[in-house]
Amino acid sequence: MRQFLSPKIKPTPAIFFPFLLLKSSTAIPKTQSLPMSWTCSVCTFINPSSHQKPTCQICLSSQPSSSLALSQSPSPTKPKWACKACTFLNQYDNSSCEVCGTRASASLLSILENDDDDFDELGSGVGDVFLPLRACNSGSTSNKNKRKIWESSIGDANDLADSGNDFRGVKAASREVQCVAGETGLDRGNKPVKIMSYNVWFREELEMHKRMEALGDLIQLHSPDIICFQEVTPNIYEVFQQSSWWKLYRCSVSDDEAFTRAYFCLQLCKLSVKSYSCRPFANSVMGRELCIAEVNVQTERTMIVATSHLESPCPAPPKWDQMYSKERVNQAKEAIKFLEKNPNVIFCGDMNWDDKLDGQFPLSDGWVDAWVQLRPSENGWTYDTKSNKMLSGNRTLQKRLDRFVCNLRDFKISEIEMIGMDEIAGLSYCKEKKVKNEVKKLMLPVLPSDHYGLLLTICPQQRK
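Above: the chain's sequence. Below: its structure in token form.
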């Protein structure tokens, strides 16, 4: 619940809420004093309350002044900023006043541009191009009124409670899904099943609506049965909801859930879904998780389709070495270990995988990498700064970040293709590129995302 103040009323500490770790439905007494963690606005790392320095542990960015002042207060409070026009106290992650729309003095929407002078010593690894993740556009006033602070649901990353299984849980393990009229897996016969995976890119100020419309055109063209999205923001979620294709799918995320996260993974399914579930990774400092759909494909044949956005490389001064390779590899191992108990499993998403840095993807016996299996002679780069002209001006990065890995008993993989590689007709944007001491303006085309999508087709095996 969001509390509002009249601009003319002097705020008191009573109206603030501390960051609370949601370990169960039991309410924490109001008299309990909790130290406050804070999230870095540059790299999204959740700095624990035990970290006493006013700089981020990962990228050394300064703690927001409002958050710093509140953390030094004996009464833990949620950081806010006062609008210079109407004095309304806004949540710190809002870049514009909720009441009058006046922008904060420090914009949360700016995107770090690459300066070649700062990267002379870097190589061609993933982290050399991926600058630290930044907060997404906070969106319209109507959206802001719906949202909660993401960090209040995640809490201190170092204090998450063990749920007793392979993952630490802060979300419900599963949710029943009501089926709607239409074709379900039970009456499909031997029809092939199409699964799409796509990182939609949370950069909202770069033609978000047009990019999502183009992505919707791809959905209507290929008509996937199951869709796995990564980097969906609340605003992107709303654009999807207003699309004509949306009503054909059952969604893994409710409206309430969609407005509690800065960005998240989303699953959509045309088939009969037994349940959706979500399991946060134990070692993630970025709130990453494994999202799972249990789908009825045929009578007595179910399939698990899981997606994730594994830990992102996040290089920053002074060492530029925060690559999170160990965390990423362990997350992949956790996911495979948890999923492999099922006879039919597909795991897809933005793995942020760098074979040179992370090694081979940790597949157990029986698992196959769909791209390697079906198109072994092709590189499969889903992030390519050379072929994706929208990314011109970035340092060169060509990696197979997005993948489908499968362990199937009753199905076989038959086809995989890369989608979203075409420029959006008649659309361009201006990118400022700093080269030494000169700023150059580049007019570049726009594609649906900075990633390319993947579309996998599987077919049922003949029953013996």
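The chain has nine helices and 21 strands.
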